[in-house]
Structures are given as structure tokens and as C-alpha cells.
Write a structure and sequence with these properties.
Elements (H helix, E strand, L loop, with lengths): L3 E6 L5 H11 L2 E7 L2 H12 L5 E5 L5 H15 L4 E4 L14 H29 L2 E8 L10 H21 L4 E8 L11 H14 L4 E3 L1
Length: 215
């Protein structure tokens, strides 16, 4: 049986890598995407010491064309992406009136629009095989917005709505879309450690019986 492939967009020392590692430990081929190639190569070396087959691609969620190129290379080499995890976000503070138009659009591009862009890049091949999953990292600010974090609040609210519409649209094609809503600050050695939250991503993927898990 061919090994399945997971692509994590927004790889990093916290939740992104924890999700990737957990799926890798469950016999997935892991592909990490973020902006910094040097860091990615470090993650690759770390993962490979534990026997996880790992590949890395540098791309910037502010620049969708870089994602297009990365996913073209990935699918040409490995075929359909079985699981996409979109974990990228601009986690910066700021009130609504402090945003200029360009910066507000930057938040929306990274937090929401590039999630849809990545999904659309992999949906055709997932639809061909009538299986696949798209998993999104949500946040409590999407349900309870905070004025000091307007960009994050709007982004997570929009991502939740986007994911729900994709969930309804794609289920007839055999594609599952789910959201893990993180309800507190992610921190090591706490109830909201990356490793514990990662388990919810694997749970959603395996069960596929609901759209959202709040943790």
C-alpha cells in the first residue's frame, strides 16, 4: 500500500510541527511548508532522526503564486495530497482603526484567502480519488472577537465560515473539511500544548463525523 501524504502549511516549532509529527508517526509522508528554508531543513533533519519521511518546500502565504508552485511540485512528485493542514496566520495585535487597507488585506490573505487557494490546488486530485481531507486551525477569537486583536479575530471568523462552506460543498465528492478551534493560548506542558491539540487533528481526520472540534 502506498504511503499517504500530509502537507502542513504553516510549519513551525509549535502546533504545525506537532501535527506533522503525529501524522508522521502514523505512517504518513510529511511535507512541511513555510517561508524560511533554513528552518524547514532543520525541521526535516529533526523529523528524519525519528524515521519520519519528510520533505520541505519554501512558500509564502502572502504570495499565492509561491504556493501554486510548491503544490505543483508536490503533486507532480507524490500525486494527490491526502491531508492538507492549513495552520498559517498573522498573529499580530491591533485595533480596527489602527489598520491601513494594505495591512488588513495582508491579514486576510494569509489567514483566509491562501487557505482557499491551497485547498483549490489539491481538490481536483482528491476528487479524482474520491477521498482526502482539509483540516484548518481555528481560534476562539473567531467566536469571541477581541478589539486588541482585530486582524486575528476577523481572520479566524472568516476561516471558520470558509471551512464550513467547503465542508458542505465537498462532502459529496468524498472530501472531508474540518476545523480545530483552539480555545486558549498554545503553550508547552499545559492543557493547550501543541501535542495535545495535534491529537484533535488526527481525531477529526479519522472520525470525520463533524465539522468542528473545540479544544
Amino acid at each position: 500500500m502506498n504511503k499517504k501524504t500530509i502537507v502542513v502549511v504553516g510549519a513551525g516549532k509549535g502546533l504545525g510541527n506537532a501535527v506533522a509529527r503525529l501524522f508522521g508517526e502514523n505512517d504518513f509522508r510529511v511535507i512541511l511548508i513555510s517561508r524560511n528554508l533554513d528552518r524547514l531543513n532543520g525541521y526535516k533533519a529533526e523529523f528524519e532522526t525519528t524515521g519520519i519521511e519528510t520533505y520541505v518546500y519554501a512558500a509564502d502565504c502572502e504570495k499565492p503564486e509561491t504556493l501554486t508552485e510548491a503544490f505543483k511540485e508536490i503533486q507532480n512528485k507524490f500525486g494527490a495530497v491526502d491531508v492538507l493542514v492549513y495552520n498559517a496566520a498573522v498573529l499580530e495585535g491591533g485595533t480596527a482603526t489602527e489598520f491601513d487597507n494594505a495591512n488588513f488585506l495582508r491579514h486576510y490573505q494569509v489567514d483566509v484567502a491562501s487557505a482557499l487557494h491551497c485547498a483549490k490546488l489539491i481538490i481536483p486530485k482528491q476528487a479524482e480519488q474520491k477521498s482526502g481531507a482539509i483540516l484548518l486551525t481555528g481560534g476562539i477569537l473567531g467566536d469571541y472577537p477581541a478589539s486588541q486583536y482585530t486582524g486575528v479575530s476577523v481572520g479566524k471568523a472568516a476561516l471558520k465560515a470558509l471551512g464550513k462552506t467547503l465542508h458542505e460543498e465537498l462532502k459529496e465528492k468524498g472530501i472531508y473539511v474540518g476545523l480545530v478551534t483552539v480555545c486558549d493560548v498554545i503553550a508547552p506542558d499545559t492543557k493547550h500544548s501543541p501535542e495535545l491539540i495535534a491529537e484533535k487533528f488526527l481525531e477529526l481526520y479519522r472520525q470525520q463525523d463533524k465539522y468542528e472540534i473545540s479544544y
